[in-house]
Structure formats: C-alpha cells, structure tokens
User: Fold this.
Amino acid sequence: MTASGTPVTSASDMAEPADTVRVPVALGERSYDILIGRGVLGEAGALIARRIPGCRAAIVTDSTVGRHHLETLESSLAEAGIDCSAIVVSPGEGSKNFATFEQVVDAVIAGRFERGDAIVALGGGVVGDLAGFVAGVVRRGMHFVQIPTSLLAQVDSSVGGKTGINVSHGKNLVGVFHQPDLVLADTGVLDTLSERHFRAGYAEVVKYGLINDADFFVWLEENWRDVFAGGPARTHAIATSCRSKAAIVARDERESGERALLNLGHTFGHALEAATGYGDRLVHGEAISIGMVLAHDFSVRMNLASKDDADRVRAHFAGVGLPTTLAEIPGDLPDADGLMTLISQDKKVSRGSLTFILTHGIGKAFIAKDVVPDAVRDFLAEAKAAGART
Amino acid sequence: MTASGTPVTSASDMAEPADTVRVPVALGERSYDILIGRGVLGEAGALIARRIPGCRAAIVTDSTVGRHHLETLESSLAEAGIDCSAIVVSPGEGSKNFATFEQVVDAVIAGRFERGDAIVALGGGVVGDLAGFVAGVVRRGMHFVQIPTSLLAQVDSSVGGKTGINVSHGKNLVGVFHQPDLVLADTGVLDTLSERHFRAGYAEVVKYGLINDADFFVWLEENWRDVFAGGPARTHAIATSCRSKAAIVARDERESGERALLNLGHTFGHALEAATGYGDRLVHGEAISIGMVLAHDFSVRMNLASKDDADRVRAHFAGVGLPTTLAEIPGDLPDADGLMTLISQDKKVSRGSLTFILTHGIGKAFIAKDVVPDAVRDFLAEAKAAGART
Ligand SMILES: NC(=O)c1ccc[n+]([C@@H]2O[C@H](COP(=O)([O-])OP(=O)(O)OC[C@H]3O[C@@H](n4cnc5c(N)ncnc54)[C@H](O)[C@@H]3O)[C@@H](O)[C@H]2O)c1
Ligand SMILES: NC(=O)c1ccc[n+]([C@@H]2O[C@H](COP(=O)([O-])OP(=O)(O)OC[C@H]3O[C@@H](n4cnc5c(N)ncnc54)[C@H](O)[C@@H]3O)[C@@H](O)[C@H]2O)c1
Ligand SMILES: [Zn+2]
Ligand SMILES: [Zn+2]
Assistant:
C-alpha cells in the first residue's frame, strides 16, 4: 500500500494491505475499524494520516515493546509526515497507577499536543489502558489510536473503549470510556511476545467461543497450534475474537447489560489475581483460564451445564499449557472465606448482590444475578480441598 | 414540598417548591433539569432521591462552603433516607490539582461508592469542576449532582458538563465532559458569598446579554441592584443565564462550534489571570469583566461595533463595581508581548491561528477565526499605555 495524497477520513475508504482483515466496530459517530494482519504496523503512518488528517502523534509505549517495535512505528509516521514524540513507561501492571498517569498527562501537555492530535498506544493492555485514559482526559478528549502488541490487547483490551488505571483499593476503578479512532493489530509483532503472555492472551480468545460461539471453540480445539505458530490461523482467531467483542460492545457500549458476558471467568479470575498480588505468580490470562474452568464447574454443580462440556473446556486449556486448577498456582492462597471476601470486593458486585457469568454449556454463557454466596463459598472450599489432596 | 413515596425518575415529573424555576437542559439521554430558587438546598434529599432512586451520596465541598451549608444538605439527605459522607477540600483554585483529585478519588472508592451512587458537589466552580471530574472517572462514571453555591457556579460552571483540573502548564487542561443528573441552584446560599465573588459571578451573567440577548442586557442595566439584593430579580437573572447557556450547550455539547461564544472576554481574561497568578489579585469574573470590555473595544477598533455599545458595556461593569481597565489590576503586568505569549498559550488557540470572540455590538457576539496577532498586540500595547498615563 502506498499513502495516497488526498486525506480520506471515512473508515470505509481506508486502504490496507491485501491480506489484512478489517473488523468494523459500529458505535454510531464513534465507529471505527480494527485492521488485523501481518505488517500493519509498517503502514501505521499512512493509515493514521488518512483517519486523522493533519494530526501530530504522542506515542505511549513501554520499554520492552519500544525496544522491539518503536522504530518501525516512528519511521512509518515520519514517512507519512506525522510529527511524533514517544513517551516510554516501565513495563508491567505497576504503570497503571496515578503517578505514571500524571507523568504521561504532563508529557503530552508539555509536548503541546492539542485536541486534534492523537495519542498512539503501542503496547499491551497496560499501555493501552493507561494511554487511553490519558487520551480521554487531556483537553477533555484527544484522538486515540490503539496499536496493541500483546495477544490479550489485540483480542480484548484494545477493543471497546474501556480505559483506566488501578488504585490501592482495586484494579481499573478509575478511568473513562474513550473509543479509539483506529485499532491496528499487527499479528507479526506477537512474534516477540513471550510464550507465557501469548498463552495468557489465548485464554481470552477461547473465551469468545465459550460465551456464544461453540463453532469457534471447536475450530480452536482443532487449530490452536496454527494460531500459536502464526500465519492465517492466527489472523482468523484474532479477527473472530474482535468481531465477537465488537458485536457485544456495539449492543451495550456502557456495560449496562450484555457486555457483562465478557466477564466470563473473570469474577473468579480477579479474586485469584488479587490473592496473588497481580504479578508474575499468575498473569491475567492464567487467572481467567482457571476462572473459566471454575465457572463451568460451578455451572455443572448448579445443574445448569453438562459435565462433558466442563471437562472439554478444562481439557482445552490444559492442552495449550494454561493452568486450570487452584493447585497449579504457586504459593499459598487464602481459604474459601478469604476468596469470597475478594470476590465481593470485585467491582462486578452490584449493590451487595453477587452477579456471576454462568453457562448452560459451551457457547451458552449468561448473566446470573443473585447467585447465592454460600453456594460459591462451598464450591471454592471443595476446589481448594481438591488441590490440597493432589 | 414533601418527599412522595414512589421514586419518579423522569425529570418532568419532578416536584419542587412553588416559586422554583426549572430550566431543562436538552441533551438527549443526558438531559437534566436545573432548579433555581430560594430554599432548594433544603429539598435536595427529596429531589435527588427522585432522580436517582436508591443512591448513596458522596458530598464534595470546601471548608468555607461546608461551614455555612453542609449541615442543611446532610439533614435533607438524611430525611430522604440517603446515606452520605462528606469529603472536604481546601477552598480556592489550588484544590483543582492532581493531588487533591487523587485524594477525592481515593476517598470515594474507600467509601465503597458504586456506579449507581452519586457525587454531590456543594460549592463554587472549583468544587464543581473537581467533583465532576471525579464523578466522571470513578468506575468510569458515577451519577453527579451539582449544588452550585457561588453565583459564577450557578450561572456558568455547573451547567454544561465541563469538568476538570489544572496542570502546571495551564488551567482546565485535564478533565472530561460529564453531565450532571441534576443541578440545584439555591439563590439563598448566595447570601453568605462574599460581595467580591458575587460581583465576579455577575460578570458572567452580563456575558449572556452581551453574547446574544440585548434585551437581557437592558434588563440588567435597570435591575442589577435587585439582582444583588436577592429576591425574584436574582432568580430571574440566574434562570435567564442558565437558559442561555443551556441552549448553547444543547446545540454544541462538545464545543466544536457555537459553544466558543461562551468565551467572550475569556481570551483576554485568561491571559490576565495567568499574568496575575490565578489568585486574589484578580479573580476570574474580574478578569473577564476587563476581558469583555477589551473585546468590545477591540471590535470597535476593527470597525465591527459602535463605540456607543462599547462605552455602555464599560459603564455597566464599572457601575456595579467591576474593574474594566488594565490599570485597575494591582501590581505589575507583563508588556503587550508578554500578554500575547500568554494569549497564544491559551487553549482556545487552534493549530497556531488566533480565534477570538468579537462582536458587532451588544448581543451580537461572533466567533472570529484568524484574528491577526499583530493587531491584538498593538491594541494591548495602547491599552497598557492608557493605564500607565492615568
Ligand atoms: N480495557 C479493557 O477492556 C481491558 C480488557 C482486558 C484487560 N485489560 C487490561 O490489560 C492489561 C493486561 O494486558 P497485557 O496482558 O497485554 O499486559 P502488558 O501490557 O503488561 O503486556 C504483557 C507483557 O508483555 C510485554 N509485551 C507486550 N507486547 C509485546 C511484544 N509484542 N513483544 C514483546 N513484549 C511485549 C509487555 O512489555 C509486558 O511486559 C491489564 O492491566 C488489564 O486490566 C483491559
Ligand atoms: N466547568 C465550567 O464550565 C466552568 C465555567 C466557568 C468557570 N469554571 C471554573 O470555576 C472556578 C471558579 O468558580 P468560583 O468563582 O465559584 O470559585 P470558588 O469555587 O473558588 O468559589 C469562590 C470562593 O467563594 C467561596 N464560596 C462559594 N460559595 C460560597 C457561599 N455560598 N458562601 C460563602 N462562600 C462561598 C469558596 O469557598 C471560594 O473561597 C474556576 O476554577 C473556573 O475554572 C468552570
Ligand atoms: Zn480478561
Ligand atoms: Zn468564565
């Protein structure tokens, strides 16, 4: 693709490399496209220039991602005549805090970026959430481009407009909804991602099959090795995931209903992350791998789903090398009451009653309100005991 | 008014004291009412309970306003069965900073307020801007009630959804658009406001006449003493101002066009505030009083407006005791070049070109793009010299 002269802002006129898949996110005047394919990072400049003519760009990245991919982005922007500067934060969840947020805000303002300019997030979910929040608040909202570089970010955090940081009381409690103008998911940049983080992101891919697309789950059971290897299967898995999330977000942008389905496995998962300190002991995708298995097992226990389905879910996660039991988490865990306390502190608790995403089987997740806390507690006590016995 | 049993959320069903004026702000699904009148603070509990059934309330106030009016609000909330707690910040512009923002966010989250709960801003524009920003970002958006207690806040900052804080590079550069669910302007609480701040807020009232309502300006010329004294004239002036701002905001919520008219006198005014350190030397309303006079004088200079109109504007501001010349600002001011630098740093500068609100006469303000900086510079040099001669 070459950058053509006339700036064209309409998403539908946007040109892209031939083998790129385009997933539109339909949100009225906030609609945008996700472009997925090998090499889109090298086209970022031209694509951004078309979508946001005349903008300057403040790139936010972390030092790890920056080392691998910042130069490619900067040259592409330079080629397209986009003036840019880069703001580099430390890698890891720790950067989603108030201090870093304030630093990035200050750097953007010191760089004299205006409302018509763009914040470009080049990184995983951490960079995307942080940079998106900055884009949402500097001058009460700047343009925002997501260039997700982790699998998790490509299939989940870069789509849907949720941004934010953590506070001492909990994760993602402060932020805004701020939709990007464009999302560029280069499947090739995932080649530099650690296998552990690729696998963790893959848990979110499987989630879309489990929520409402049993066929996709079956396809993943058959093709997951090709997804890990790269190539067209990877692009297909990412595009299917984005399409699935985009459809849910389009129907419920502000999470007043259906969007909660995306939390399948996350109530358990968040409690496990909190229990392990949001660190290397258990990364998010691992936590929700266990969480999704628990959600299926609990649904079986409630006579909602068949044991066969739950076993198949566990087998697939275990097959790709993801943890599926509490026993696999290194170090000590709180007891069932301790986990319940963490669950009730999770933000998905609405006015005191427990809301869970449960399932009638693979591809049949649903929002269950008023789940009885004692049933969850007993279930967790057994899950812990099972771990202790092995 | 007594709190009736059934929660009614529709704005049009809302009951209020008989002599209360209701100004609707039409913003689609974000529409809300402004209720203006003596004593509405005492009805806050019932009114909030109707609008946001079942909510808890985190009150944000400053220590001065809190001393005078917090108890009335707390009893009213208690009567309506609304559980609340108060977060008290220091009075003054200094509280619109990152540190206080973070403290208030933390206090709200520590108080376990959820998305369905409300942040209630009880105070002037400082408290409203700060608390509104907090409401906009905690859990990605909570309910928000404005109880403006300064005249400026009642006629300007509480209406329209702009929230934010200052950073070292400039004022209001960080924030969100977050519309309130309800605005309660008790004209009686203004009795405890200092005369200086009342007068400063009055400058914004006059602004609405100058923008597009010559009749209102004439009415103010005749009735301003009654507005200062309180009573129905005060309510009328506040309601007219709110109606005027609401109409402009409804047509241009995100300030992509017409809303810029509200900046009449503000480009000059902001430069003067920056020059005097945003403090007691010159408060905002005083700065824009001078700014509006300068905008009229400059329009005369550009052959856009008649000298008669400009003189009338100056006479009215001077008559109520507001400053109208650079010479009245205590202490030293930068020279014309220094003021120009401050003007070009103001956020209304778009991509390098100067945008000013100029006027064809009283009630006939318009957005002038590409004003020639040198013309402004020369004009300011003369305005300064005129001051030096007196
Ligand atoms: N906004 C949302 O809707 C949403 C949804 C899900 C998760 N999240 C958030 O996403 C975050 C997790 O995202 P994540 O897993 O991407 O974490 P991350 O951003 O920390 O990335 C994981 C690690 O991989 C590195 N990395 C990323 N891309 C790389 C690449 N191409 N090559 C080499 N290294 C690379 C990073 O430096 C980091 O060390 C969490 O903070 C979570 O809250 C947000
Ligand atoms: N959001 C917007 O659209 C918008 C518009 C205009 C101005 N603003 C902002 O508003 C702020 C200025 O507002 P302000 O003039 O109300 O300042 P303020 O909030 O500092 O109030 C002025 C002073 O009056 C005191 N006070 C307020 N109400 C009182 C009462 N009833 N009795 C006794 N004392 C009282 C306060 O404690 C303070 O000391 C600025 O920060 C400005 O940026 C915002
Ligand atoms: Zn997740
Ligand atoms: Zn003003």
Remarks:
- Residues 1-14 of chain B have pLDDT under 50 and may be disordered.
